[in-house]
UniProtKB/TrEMBL annotation:
The lineage of its organism: Bacteria, Pseudomonadati, Pseudomonadota, Alphaproteobacteria, Hyphomicrobiales. This is Sugar-binding transcriptional regulator. It holds the Pfam family Sugar-bind. It comes from Pannonibacter tanglangensis. GO terms for molecular function: carbohydrate binding; DNA binding. Keywords: DNA-binding, Transcription, Transcription regulation. Belongs to the SorC transcriptional regulatory family. It comes from the Bacteria.
Length: 326
């Protein structure tokens, strides 16, 4: 079952190429340029589409439901791009891998030589790194959007930056600073240190940003991997309407950065500082990310989202409910 599901990402690429070629009339070299892949790969995908019986009078694909969800997300939000990956029932790890595969391909389609790519830490971003398979080395610079938390492979953003650069064949520039300073004054001092300021200035000018979206609910929360918060504070945050973690910032359900003391001590860029990026890709998997993603969408922090089918279905239902209530 898992192996069959893992073929969906290849099927998605075939479907995309067939639509561009047969329905939109693009030539193979135009498709290669648009999707940032070689012409030979485009030709190979078209050939595979023929062999799989996907080219008849119309293009048939297992992605009809997923592409319909993608269109609903783009139509109902400020997103420019949405990619919905299949949910593997009862297997959160494999579902995350599916989302990582889809996000990895979207990232490769989005990057160009000379780009700066800025990323956060997190399990979802780690899944993207794990599933990157570029056809060639890319002349890109990868930088962190935040300071780091050591101890886990996915909270150490410098570790992920280094791995991402290695996978892409580019170079990494690191921020050697903790995620949280002891005070706002210390935060300002750290961020103004020349080596750190240089990297954060690069991050501000990034063409592409890749970010996870964290939850703050006590059960399964990824925010508390970054900073141990007392149980009383956890309940208080939820009670105050804090719904998400984005770039290590706590975000309210309306999309406003929360007035919480830890936010003032972050050694990190704020969401507003990457608003000029060509592509800001958010990655999330699982039903527990529905409320956090909705908060981030309310804040208009993203222009691209990659999420799994079950979670997107629940997100659209909740958006519809809120619209009806309003």
């Amino acid at each position: 079952m898992a192996e069959r599901n893992l073929d969906f990402e290849l099927a998605r690429q075939i479907h995309t190429v067939l639509v561009l070629h047969f329905l939109e009339g693009l030539k193979q070299f135009e498709i290669a340029q648009k999707l940032n892949m070689s012409t030979s790969k485009v030709n190979r995908l078209i050939t595979q589409g023929h062999k799989l019986g996907m080219v008849k009078i119309s293009i048939e694909s297992p992605f009809a439901r997923l592409t319909e969800l993608e269109a609903q997300l783009v139509g109902g939000t400020a997103l420019e791009t949405a990619v919905v990956a299949p949910t593997v029932s009862g297997n959160a790890e494999t579902t995350l891998k599916q989302v990582g595969l889809a996000a990895a391909n979207l990232l490769l389609e989005s990057l160009r030589d000379g780009d700066v790519l800025a990323i956060t830490g997190g399990k979802a971003v780690s899944a993207v790194v794990d599933n990157l398979s570029p056809e060639r080395e890319m002349n890109v610079t990868v930088v962190p959007l935040t300071g780091g938390v050591q101890g886990k492979y996915y909270t150490d953003v410098n570790h992920l930056v280094t791995r991402m650069a290695e996978r892409l064949g580019g170079k990494a520039m690191l921020v050697h600073a903790p995620l949280f300073a002891e005070s706002r004054t210390q935060r300002d001092m750290v961020k103004n240190m020349a080596p750190i300021k240089e990297v954060f200035d690069l991050a501000r000018s990034a063409s592409v940003a890749l970010t996870g979206i964290g939850s703050v609910e006590p059960r399964g929360s990824s925010y508390y991997d970054l900073n141990p918060v007392p149980e009383s504070d956890r309940k208080m945050l939820v009670g105050l309407g804090v719904a998400a973690e984005f770039m290590a910032h706590l975000v309210g359900e309306t999309g406003v950065i929360a007035d919480y003391e830890l936010n003032s001590r972050l050694v990190a860029l704020s969401p507003s500082e990457i608003s000029s990026c060509r592509k800001v890709i958010g990655v999330a998997a699982g039903l527990q990310k529905v409320r956090p993603v909705q908060a981030v969408l309310n804040g208009k922090f993203l222009n691209s989202l990659v999420m799994d089918e079950e979670a997107v279905t629940a997100l659209l239902a909740e958006m519809g409910r809120m619209k009806h209530v309003a």
